[in-house]
Amino acid sequence: MPRAVSAALGTVLDPELDESIVELGFVTEASVVDGAASIRLRLPTYFCAPNFAYLMVADAYDAVTSVPGVRSASVVLEDHFAATEINAGVAAGAGFVDSFPGEAAAELSQLRENFQRKAHTACLERACQRLLADGWTVDTLPGAHLRDLPVGDERSSLLRRRADLGLPLDEDATLLVDDGGEPVPSDQVAPRLRFARTVRVSIDGNAHFCRGLLTTRYPHAAADQQHRLRGSEGTA
Amino acid sequence: MYRKDGESYFVVDGHVHFWDGSPANQANVHGAQFIDCFYDYHKNLSPAEWLWPKEKFYKYTEADLLHDLFETGYVDKAIFQPTYLTDFYTNGFNTTEQDGAVAENNPGKFIVNGSFDPRDAESGLRALEALRKRWNLQGVKLYTAEWKGSSRGWKLSDPWAFRYLEKARELGIKNIHVHKGPTIRPLDRDAFDVADVDVAATEFTDLNFIVEHVGLPRLEDFCWIGTQEPNVYGGLAVAMPFIHTRPRYFAQVIGELLYWIGEDKLLFASDYAIWQPKWLVEKFVDFTIPEDMTEYPALTPDVKRKILGLNAAALYDIEVPAELRARVVAQPEAEVAVGAST
Q1: Among candidates B169, B177, B247, which has minimal Cα distance to B212?
Q2: Mutate which: B184, B221, B243, B289, vs A, most A CBs within 10 A
Q3: What's the whole-model pTM score?
């Protein structure tokens, strides 16, 4: 896989699982010949939700066509019940509603934003767990800033989700904020973290299930999957 | 009944099927893909020694069902949950009538649940009355993602769904099992979203809403509504088999559910024939929350007894053996978990 195209695809996330489609093993081909990129994608089941599938195909198209030297791109989703509509819609730049005439009522921005908020919540929980392990307490967490979060996976994943939501990224920014950027009041920290853990467990569980289904459906897919560094099942 | 280490467990399998997914019954490519998808679930999360050949998985016999549930699977009572899928399968995938015939052949073993589809409008209301009368329904299984002509799904908050829930209440059908799954209409929203269950549960407080698969893949949304609605329960089909492939993840899911939903509102289920009750029951009774997960309470034999059978027995008025009856405690008042209001 040409490095620049691979790197571009690496930025495309499965919105539900909050992981890169490359690490999940969803990309089966990424080649460029004379400026024409050819990408093939696969998913864990034939019935994977078409709205999320559409977002991944469209994001892959946008990511690849932004790579210098790529003049055109073909992104093909395979083995999916709505593949024909999705592939044609993305190729034509039709948008989601026009790809499914009479069946879709709105574009997917709200859906995407909902899952970006869930991803931020889960990443914030991991970041707070890291700080708590480093000696912070539930009472002192409202005073934490981004500079207090050490370099590492928790930090980079939180910064990316903050960027997605348009939250400030400077070192002096408050770490523990809600999805709208408002600081979490001190009496809300414990219950907020408690619910955030449930969100994180849910996202991690979905990722386990989908990774397993992909390798069940495509036995050789395991070799293409990279597991994220952070221990998603807690410390062993 | 399952006995281990001096403890007894009455087992109600809250979600079993007797399906026909065979090529002869498949109406189109979606029917073929649907059963193949089920087979991948089966392969993905089953212990190797429990894997079936695909041909058997397509269509198994009544003898297989009886053997796997009652002869070896420790099940005392099993609840049939129909999945019609008449757009995918010529004779339906798993209808009330197919289940009911097996139940009548084996008195006392099964509870037969029916189904309804609000898109059938007036004629469906009359059909529900007939189904109630024929099979003495106490519950229904609703499949909001089911395709029907050009429609790819419906919601429990739809006006016609309310008409059907009113009819269910009138007929004494009190247990409403809801399955959430992918659908392509409305495509722009999240088809796994359980928010419509919240709306219906608030309106119909005298009905019990059992969210199958504990809302997976939206566990957090299910937990959220479960803390607010005392009549919302969680069915553990699909969550159970993680006990084998991902025991630490299973511990987290059960831990979260016990915290938000509570030990009185979770129902064991195998989703037979996707998974088998024998190994699920054995592993669940042996299971302990890992010691380092100090945030979760212990999974005691009393809690396991409730989840494995006593909770479902209470919902379906199933008689529990005397040795266990003393352990049946009254349902506590709805508790709102700490932090649920944030």
Answers
A1: B177
A2: B184
A3: 0.91
